[in-house]
Design goal:
Layout (H helix, E strand, L loop, with lengths): L2 E4 L2 E4 L5 E10 L7 E9 L12 E6 L5 E9 L8 E11 L2 E4 L1 E7 L15 E4 L3 E3 L15 E8 L14 E3 L5 E10 L9 E8 L7 E4 L2 E3 L3 E7 L7 E5 L5 E4 L2 E5 L4 E10 L4 E11 L12 E5 L4 E10 L6 E10 L1
Parallel strand pairs: 1-8, 2-9, 10-15, 17-23
Antiparallel strand pairs: 1-3, 3-6, 4-5, 4-7, 7-9, 11-13, 12-14, 14-15, 16-18, 18-21, 19-20, 19-22, 22-23, 24-25, 25-26
Length: about 325
C-alpha cells in the first residue's frame, strides 16, 4: 500500500485580512484505488480564531493521483510578536498508510512594535486647596501590549505631592495660593518599549469673593476707638483696603480699629480683592462730641441752736449748662 505524507507550510501573516498557508499531501506511489485521509488543524503557539482559522475534513485521491493540497487561512494583524506555529495532522487513512502525519505551519511575523501613546488628560482649572486627579487612563498602545507602565513627573509650579507616580490616575491637593502646575506623563508598553511623553496644565485659582458687608457701630465719640469688621460669604486669599473717609487709607485685615479726630459724618469704604474678583462695601459713621454734664455744687450750712438739739442743713445748688433752670437739693441732718 502506498504511504501518505504531509509537508510543512509557512506564510508571512500580513497586517490585515487572511493569507493562505499551503500544505501538500502526497502518496508515495500512484494507486489504482481511491485513497482518502482525514485532516485537522491543531494549536501550537498560534491559536485558532486569533492567529489562523481552524479547518478539518477528508482529502480524497482518485486512482493515479499522487498529490493534493490543504490551505489554512492565516489572520493578519499589526502586533509585533514572535513567529508562531500550528499543526495540520493526518489520520484515518483508507487504502494507504501514513508515513508522515504532521505538517508544521509557521506564521512569520512581519510587524514592528509601535511605541505606546501617552495621554495626560485635559487641562484643568481648579480652586486653591482642592483635591485634584490627573488622568492618564486614555493612554493606549497600538499593538495592544498591555498593561502599560505609567510615570508622572511635575515639571512646573509650586511643588505638590502626588499620591503615586506610577498609576494612571494619581491625586494631589492643590496649593493654597494661585499658581500654574505642569505635569508630564510617560508610558511604556508590556514589551518595555517607551513612548513619547504628554503634558497637562493645572491652573490653580482663587475662589471668587461674594457678599461683602461691614459690621460695626453706627456712631462713635470723637477720639474714641471704632472697631469695624469686613465679612465675606466666600472667597480665598482676600486682601482688604480700608478708607475711613477722613483721609486715612489702610491696608489691613478684615478687622480694623480707627479713631476720628473731628466730629462729622464719614463714609467708610472697604475693598476686598483677590486674584479673580474685587468687591466694595460702604458704611456711614457719625462722630459726635462727648455728652456735657457740668455741675456746680454750693454747700450751705445753717446752724440753729436750741435747748435740746442742733439742726444742720446743707443745700446743693446745680445748674445745667444747657438748661436755664436751677435745681436744688436740700439735705437735713440733726446734730444732737
Amino acid at each position: 500500500m502506498p504511504g501518505l505524507s504531509i509537508g510543512d507550510g509557512s506564510v508571512v501573516e500580513g497586517n490585515s485580512g487572511t493569507v493562505g498557508a499551503v500544505f501538500t499531501v502526497t502518496l508515495s506511489a500512484a494507486s489504482g484505488r481511491v485513497v482518502s485521509v482525514t485532516y485537522a488543524t491543531a494549536d501550537g503557539t498560534a491559536v485558532a480564531g486569533a492567529d489562523y482559522i481552524g479547518v478539518s475534513g477528508v482529502l480524497t485521491f482518485t486512482p493515479g493521483e499522487v498529490s493534493r493540497t490543504v490551505i489554512v487561512a492565516v489572520l493578519g494583524d499589526t502586533l509585533d510578536e514572535d513567529d508562531e506555529t500550528f499543526f495540520l495532522n493526518l489520520s484515518n487513512p483508507t487504502n494507504a498508510t501514513i508515513t508522515d502525519g504532521q505538517g508544521v505551519g509557521t506564521i512569520v511575523d512581519d510587524d514592528v512594535n509601535l511605541p505606546p501613546i501617552a495621554d495626560a488628560g485635559p487641562d484643568q482649572d481648579v480652586l486653591v486647596g482642592a483635591t485634584v486627579y490627573l488622568d492618564g487612563s486614555n493612554s493606549t498602545d497600538p499593538d495592544g501590549y498591555l498593561p502599560l507602565e505609567y510615570k508622572w513627573e511635575q515639571t512646573g509650579g509650586t511643588p505638590v505631592i502626588l499620591s503615586s507616580q506610577t498609576v494612571s490616575r494619581p491625586m494631589f491637593v492643590a496649593p493654597e495660593t494661585p499658581t500654574v502646575l505642569t505635569f508630564t506623563l510617560s508610558v511604556t508598553d508590556a514589551l518595555g518599549l517607551p513612548g513619547s511623553a504628554d503634558s497637562v496644565v493645572i491652573i490653580v485659582k482663587d475662589e471668587a469673593i461674594a457678599e461683602l458687608i461691614v459690621i460695626g457701630a453706627d456712631s462713635v465719640v470723637v477720639s474714641k476707638s471704632l472697631v469695624l469688621t469686613a465679612v465675606v460669604a466666600s472667597g480665598t486669599n482676600v486682601i482688604y483696603q480700608w478708607d475711613f473717609g477722613d483721609g486715612t487709607v489702610l491696608h489691613a485685615g478684615p478687622v480694623v480699629t480707627h479713631t476720628y479726630g473731628m466730629t462729622g459724618t464719614y463714609t467708610v469704604m472697604v475693598t476686598a480683592s483677590n486674584s479673580v474678583s474685587v468687591l466694595t462695601a460702604a458704611k456711614e459713621v457719625e462722630v459726635t462730641n462727648p455728652p456735657l454734664d457740668n455741675r456746680i455744687y454750693l454747700p450751705l450750712i445753717m446752724m440753729n441752736e436750741g435747748k435740746k438739739a442742733q439742726d444742720r442743713m446743707s443745700i446743693g445748688l446745680a445748674k445745667s449748662v444747657n438748661d436755664t433752670s436751677l435745681r436744688y437739693a436740700v439735705n437735713w441732718r440733726r446734730l444732737r
